[in-house]
Amino acid sequence: MRRCFLALIAGLLIVLSAPDSQALSVDEMGDVVQRLDPEAQGGERYWRFKIEGVSLTLVYDEGRDRMRVIAVIAPVNQLTPEQIVRCLQANFDSALDARYALAQGVLWSAFIHPLGSLDREELISGIGQTVNLVNSFGTTYSSGALVYGGGDSQRLQRELIDKLLERGQPI
Question: What pTM value is reported for the model?
Answer without folding.
Answer: 0.76
